[in-house]
Amino acid sequence: MSDPDLKITPLYEAHLAAGARMVPFAGYSMPVQYRDGVLKEHVWTRTHAGLFDVSHMGQARLRGENPFEAFQAVTPGDFVGLKPGKQRYSVLLNASGGIIDDLMAARPDADGLFIVVNGACKDNDFKVMAEQLAGRVEIERLENRALLALQGPEAARVLAGHVPQAASMVFMDSLSCEGLGTDLILSRSGYTGEDGYEISVPADQAARVWALLLEDERVRPIGLGARDSLRLEAGLPLYGHDVDESVSPIEADLAFAVSPKRRLAADFPGAARILAELADGPPRKRVALKVLEGAPAREGAEIADADGKVVGVITSGGFSPSLSIPIAMGFVPPGLAGVGTALKVIVRGKPQTAEVVAMPFVPHQYVRKL
Amino acid sequence: MRFTKDHEWVALDGDVATIGITAYAAEQLGDVVFVETPEPGKTVKAGEGLAVVESVKAASDVYAPVSGEVIEANEALSGAPETVNDQPEGAGWFARVRLADKAQYESLMDRAAYDAFLETL
Known about the structure:
heterodimer; A: alpha+beta; Gyrase A, domain 2; six-stranded mixed β-sheet; six-stranded antiparallel barrel; 32% strand; globular; B: CATH 2.40.50.100; 24% helix
């Protein structure tokens, strides 16, 4: 029996049948791991293809006279310049330049802007958009669609066997098409650092598509536990942990999401703060840390400088299955953010040696050219 | 061997109690990647933290099932934490404690009672 306080995705029964351990996440009962466990699922995704249920995430269409221009009122991205068939990563900003959520926005077809936001934030995100963009866009939440992610070095070959068009897409391409026996919204992207796709399907087709993809022996179901360790190794921030409403895109090391055109126009929420941080440096910066001894440093652990003075905090951390050492992300003053800086992480009162390293920990495998 | 509701086991040899976590606990934790064992010489009370075991997912406390003085920690776990998954009720032991009160050991669940307890979870 599922917890009556939790929502379920169209794949709930499939998860149970596959031996998933279900946990509450973003208001949903979600699989944290299947029978293989987090470590094996992580390695499988890095070496073959992992299939994830991310149907808790919020999908929507923004339609109107010019939804691309309108969307720029709440983000620092260049959506006027978003070409058909392309997707962009962006952030929803509050008036002080803090991040309300991070998201993907795409033009898979001629039907406005297709966006995907975080599950835990989606109700608030759509409320903010409805308020800020009133009269300019109509927001249709696609509650009748599920979202799967197929990630890993064999993902492209697996999906091309079902959907030939997938093979001609590159990283951050977006496409509405028929395939897998239904209508799809595909993007060649994901949140693991691997090549792969996110596949939006009608909710009533999700279980069939899930089972069909799993018929391929290169594909295994992967839970949220491995999704977290994969995105951590890929240096990708997790909203609600590494990023919240107090954090600017510059502090979060997401300056690439602030488009050059929009910097010149200075016409996005919190532009004064964000442009000042771009010019003078932010007061704190998200960094990647390798923990060189001892236990994994997890969210909430303090970061100290070489003299033992507390200078920051870990926002997410754990054990890296690919590197076989603990890794973490956290915020430190910019003077301590340089690669090679020696720091300490305090775990259960004990200082452990750590070092700032380049992000990502494990190289991205995105296919940018065919 | 005796067991607690927190899924620790204790094996007694004379007045020396060897302590670890059960196969059920190891399975629930998933892949163990780090174990923090207590310093020999430390005195622990039943119910207090004895060790910390870290899986990929999270850190979990291991409680002392009995009171006494730690006389040995399983140093091998620092290089091979996966032993906790492979042999939880054997080579994956955490610490040896010189028992202060043998009645504490006797008050814990035996295997049949622990198995019955697992059935209720």
